[in-house]
From TrEMBL:
This is NADH dehydrogenase (Ubiquinone) 1 beta subcomplex subunit 8, mitochondrial-like. InterPro entries: NDUFB8 (IPR008699). The chain crosses the membrane at residues 129-147. Keywords: Membrane, Transmembrane, Transmembrane helix, Ubiquinone. One of its GO terms (cellular component) is mitochondrion.
Length: 174
């Protein structure tokens, strides 16, 4: 009886019983096949069904061209990077600035907060950035060059514990 009781409460047996309850929460209750795009819509009825599936009105729904890339009925969405979205909105996924169920761009993985900023413009032109960089670089170089003579003027003599004693030698100890 003691062996059976110990076996019931091992870490492995507890994990086996608890893991199926954790998995649906981890995958938000869906399987990968739920997000797989369907075949390219050939009729108007298929087009309307695909627009409804992705939560778009039929006027806004336009699938990618059927060129063999495998996008199927997935909608051709405009590029909106996470950086250009409102940072103060209450999103379901704050790290990606998106809500549950909203369709993503096909290349959404490269438009995250730590990746490409599609609509990003620098406040300063690259030429002006270069001018400021080289001005600072040359300015520090000139100050260093001019300051070499200024700091070397006052050197104190080297200090030894006792004057006249040899504290080391490079000759052999023979």
């Amino acid at each position: 009886m003691g062996f059976v009781g110990r076996k019931l409460f091992t870490l492995q047996s507890i994990a086996k019983r608890a893991l199926p309850q954790i998995q649906p929460a981890r995958f938000a209750g869906h399987w990968n096949d739920d997000w797989k795009p369907g075949p390219y819509p050939k009729t108007e009825a298929e087009r309307l069904a695909a627009a409804k599936r992705y939560g778009l009105i039929p006027e806004d729904y336009e699938p990618y061209p059927d060129d063999g890339m495998g996008y199927g009925d997935y909608p051709k969405l405009p590029i909106v990077s996470a950086e250009s979205r409102d940072p103060f909105e209450c999103y379901d996924y704050k790290g990606h600035r998106r809500n549950w169920g909203e369709p993503l761009h096909v290349d959404a993985d490269i438009y995250g907060l730590d990746r490409i900023k599609h609509a990003h413009t620098d406040p300063v032109s690259p030429i002006r950035m270069g001018v400021w960089f080289f001005t600072a670089y040359i300015g520090f170089f000139v100050l260093t060059y001019l300051g070499e003579d200024f700091f070397d003027k006052e050197m104190k003599p080297q200090q030894f514990p006792h004057r006249g004693e040899t504290h080391y030698t490079f000759e052999s100890a023979e």
